[in-house]
Design a protein that fits this description.
alpha+beta; 11 strands; elongated
Length: 349
């Protein structure tokens, strides 16, 4: 019993530090994800990288079809605004579900690459727009522009403009609408948007003109960026440095024990194995504790901490981070232990 108490007393500080580091990072991550989602929706489902692009030439009345640029290793969205008043009707095409709109689906599904690649007459509507549709033969349809479109998905209620939005397959719209109009290009990074714009400009040479237009919004796109990113990074660095300081005090406190271990022939490999096993137990206990605390907070204070934004892979990354920290701790312990002078330590110097 005494040995167990002694062992827990020696490593309890490591356990608490790993526990609170992981909890702090996960809670702050959930907050940033929630801010990013709300800002994205309030920006009318556009990111900060979006660029407007007028395709056309006022001197030419004829319409010219354009090609959908294929950019290697780059995903982007292409939108054509059909109605941008109180309600939004927007034609959409993308290389993938770049901004995770499928995560907002309450019924059915969002567009996939097969839908984009074809001329299928399909729409995805917000919760406030369902009243415009009707059911027939087990399917839901919506009349638009004198044509019948199948409602393949309905967004959940968000309290934002997404509730009043209708997304239409862009390829099906281009069958009856002019190609030359105002489009918006959006992606996860500015470089991808610039590459797509450049590709459009190259394809337009000798056919039509392109005029770029900035999209203005009063809402700042949040997420882990700018000040939030700096705060998160600073807090993590401070926590890790505090952990390393604890290691120094740990080895100093165990200096006599380390000297005896070295006297009995324990090598750096033996020391790493000995302390590594204890740290592995601490990491496992910390991970389990973090999961249990997050589950408890999600049940009673999930809305306050927005923990529903966390996915399984966030916990997997957190687990990997704890293992990396544990390995760093063991490495630092062994490195400091190697510097312990056996003779001086046993003489009380």
């Amino acid at each position: 019993m005494r040995k167990i108490f002694k062992l827990s007393y020696e490593y309890i500080l490591f356990y608490l530090q790993l526990l609170f580091i992981a909890l702090f990072v996960l809670v702050l991550l959930a907050y940033n994800l929630d801010i990013a989602e709300k800002s994205f929706l309030e920006r009318r489902m556009f990111s900060e990288n979006v660029r407007g692009m007028w395709l056309g030439d006022p001197r030419v009345d004829t319409d010219v079809a354009f090609e959908f640029p294929e950019i290697p290793n780059a995903d982007y969205m292409l939108y054509k605004n059909l109605d941008d008043s109180f309600d939004i009707t927007r034609a959409i095409w993308g290389t993938s579900d770049v901004f995770g709109l499928s995560s907002f689906i309450d019924e059915g599904r969002f567009f996939n690459t097969d839908d984009y690649a074809s001329n299928v007459q399909a729409v995805v509507v917000g919760s406030d727009m369902v009243f415009r549709s009707f059911e027939e033969n087990g399917k839901r349809y919506l009349h638009y522009d004198g044509r019948l479109f199948e409602v393949i998905g309905v967004f959940c209620e968000t309290g934002t403009v997404l509730d009043r939005t209708i997304y239409v397959n862009l390829r099906s719209i281009l069958e009856t609408h002019e190609h030359l109009a105002l489009y918006y290009i959006d992606a996860r990074d500015e470089d991808t948007v610039s590459r797509v714009v450049s590709e459009f400009q190259q394809n337009a040479e000798g056919k039509y003109k392109i005029m770029l237009q900035e999209y203005e919004s009063s809402v700042h796109y949040g997420g882990i960026g700018g000040v939030n990113h700096t705060m998160l990074l600073t807090a993590v660095i401070a926590a890790v440095l505090n952990l390393l300081i604890t290691v120094i005090f740990f080895v100093t406190h165990k200096k006599h024990k380390v000297a005896v271990q070295k006297l009995y022939g324990m090598t750096s490999k033996n020391l790493a194995w000995s302390y590594g096993k204890s740290i592995a137990v601490i990491i496992t206990a910390s991970f389990i504790s973090v999961v249990l605390v997050i589950v408890g907070l999600s049940q009673y204070m999930g809305g306050f901490f927005t923990l529903e934004k966390l996915a399984v892979y966030h916990f997997m990354i957190m687990g990997g981070g704890l293992i990396a920290l544990g390995m760093a701790v063991v490495f630092f312990i062994v490195k400091l232990a190697r510097k312990v002078n056996i003779s001086d330590t046993l003489k009380g110097r």
